[in-house]
Amino acid sequence: RRVSHVSKPSQELTCILGSTRGQTAIRMAPPKSVQVACICGFSAIGSFLFGMDMGYIGPIIEDSNFKRDVAHLPDWDEPGSEIDSATSGFIVSIFALGCVFSSFPLVSGFFLDRLGRKVSLMTGSLVFVVGAVVQAACSSISMMLVGRFIAGCSIGILSTVVPLYQSELAPPQLRGGLTALHQVMVVFGATIATFADALLLPLDDGWRLAILMPVVPGLVLFVGMFFLPRSPRWLVQHGEQEAALSVLQSIREEEGARSELQEIILDQERDQASGGMRWADLFSGRVVRLLAVGIVLQLLQQATGICMFVTFGPRIFQTLGFDASLLQTLLMAAGFVAVLPAMYFIERFGRKTLLLFGAIGMLLPSVVMAALGMIYTRQEDGKIEVLSKVAGSAIVACIFFFCINFAYSWGPTTWVYCAEIFPLKVRGYCVGLTTMAEWAGAFIINQLTPTMLSSMGFGAFAVTVAFNVVALLFVLWLPETKGVLLEHMDQIFDKRFGKDEAQDLGKRGARCPSQKMDCNPTWDDNASGKTSDASA
Fold first, then answer.
1. Whole-angstrom distance, CA of residue 225 vs CA of residue 519
2. Do 369 and 395 touch, CB atoms closer than 8 A?
3. What is the C-alpha to C-alpha distance for residues 475 and 487, in angstroms, rounded to an integer?
4. Pick from 41, 415, 486, 15: which is nearest to 237 by CA?
């Protein structure tokens, strides 16, 4: 059923920039602002699970009890005992393979578009619980790999749906900050997992307890999602405009709810007029260009080198002669503190600015680490020897500086950007593809890092230098999306792609701050109050 009938065609809907009020038409009373923030925050428990898995696995594969119980190394209790590079890399990276599988559009599209964002969150949480139990109960490398793959399948779904769900519920003026909660909770989860490792791993079966810890928030997410709303855009996509209006009225003011619903309906009608979703739509016209932008962003996020420090940080710190557990815990804590301001920065300064400063902030320490690594370290039989304690301390400082710059910039902003740039008709599939690219990059990096460190030593940081240069150049080209309604993203990118049909929105947006956008659709007198006969 239709809620209302619009008397004016879609082309008569205007977006007035530079309003004297300086506010967006989608206004919210404070209690409703808090409500939508709580919804986005609770859904980010899915991101917390992602972070916990990312945080606990590095110290666990270096744990002597794990080497005894799972790897069955004969010299498990000796300080120099190590699981070989290929095996340790695969234990970490098979998780990313599971993510690649479940984020592939044929899989993620089924969950996101058929079952919906809400049900996908519930499904992902249950699959994660199963994966955690399998890992905690394992007694061999092969069983551990099965559990890692299952957990990866859950995170592939959750890492796709959480930022998408948040961006579709959040209003334009808060969308960046609320969607950034995804990365905040990822880092928070990694930090908690690192602290848990420090407390639990000294115990005989402590590594099993560390893996089981995320089961509790996984179950909390599953139960809590019963009480959270579906995405209004998903509801409109499935012809449930009345339910969509009800959701919007619960998180917006009345006028803003009806205005936003009309924008969503018009966008959906344009999509329907162009036919149903076809695979060909993903690889033609504007969509394939947007898809290329999203995929490159996600690949560069991994290629900057963050996985080397988050996952294999304990091995690097131990090689440098420092307390690996302490420094890894401090690194995760520093990353969590650094990611918190991103929720404000991303709306205050914009997506592009954060990506730009982050790329510069990661490039500089990468150059220093590569130079120090090649000058003050040497390798012998696959082992790295540090020739200068001062150089080792400088490398540690650079690692912290690198991770802090990643935390407030590329960590949250790439997820925000990819969740908001695609048209509704193909959004689920496109976000799935960009997430799959991110996990494919993570798999490659996690698989190659132990081998690169064994063969190249700290000269491997020269690879991150090259990718950070590419990231910096790419960001200079990107358009700013701060404060733009999801249904108007096409116009912003048309201008960047050089399309002649770029709308007046893009032209005037260059002259006015995008957060001061007022979207005031034209309604007839009966539209806002009752259902028309034609609609009924």
1. 31
2. yes
3. 23
4. 486
Please tell me the distance from the alpha carbon of residue 318 to that of residue 327, in angstroms, as a whole number: 9
**What residues have CB less than 8 Å from 194, skipping those under 6 apart?**
55, 56, 59, 328, 329, 331, 332, 333
The residues near 364 (Cβ < 8 Å, ≥ 6 apart) are 401
Alpha carbon separation from 97 to 190, 196, 327, 379 (Å, rounded): 20, 25, 28, 31
pLDDT of residue 274: 67
How far is 108 from 114, CA to CA, in rounded Å? 10
Q: Which residues pair with 380 in a beta bridge?
A: 383
Taking each continuous run of H as one helix and of E as one strand, the counts in the chain are 26, 4
Q: Helix axis angle, 141-169 relative to 117-137, nearest 10°?
A: 160
Closest of 161, 29, 38, 31 to residue 108, by C-alpha: 161
* Cβ atoms of residues 6 and 267 within 8 Å: no
Residue 100 per-residue DSSP state: H
Residues 136/65, Cβ–Cβ less than 8 Å: no
Instruction: Give the closest residue to 405 by CA, choosing from 359, 445, 374.
Output: 359
Residue 95 vs residues 53, 57, 69, 82, 138: alpha-carbon distances, Å: 9, 10, 20, 20, 15
pLDDT at position 329 is: 85
Q: Which residue has the higher pLDDT, 379 or 70?
A: 70
Q: What is the total residue count of the chain?
A: 536
- Tell me the two tokens of residue 13: 């809907």
* DSSP code per residue over 469-536: HHHHHHHHHPPP-TT--GGGHHHHHHHHHT-TT--HHHHHHTTS-GGGEEEE----TTTTTS--TTT-
Report the SS3 class of residue 375: helix
Q: Which of 267, 221, 264 is nearest to 241 (CA)?
A: 264
- Contact by Cβ (8 Å): 415, 434: no
Say whether pLDDT at 512 is over 70.
no
Report DSSP state, residue 203.
S
Helix (H) or strand (E) holding 16: strand 14-17
CA distances to 123, 145, 189, 371, 408 from 441, rounded to whole Å, are 25, 19, 21, 25, 20
Largest CA distance in the chain: 82
DSSP 57-83: HHHHHT-HHHIIIII--TTTTSTT---
- Residue 140 carries which DSSP code? S
**Neighbouring C-beta atoms of residue 281, cutoff 10 Å:** 20
**What percentage of the chain reaches a pLDDT higher than 90?**
23
Residue range 114-161, pLDDT digits in tens: 888 899 999 999 999 999 999 999 989 999 999 999 999 999 889 888
Residues 390-440 have pLDDT tens digits of: 888 999 999 999 999 999 999 888 888 888 888 877 877 888 888 888 888
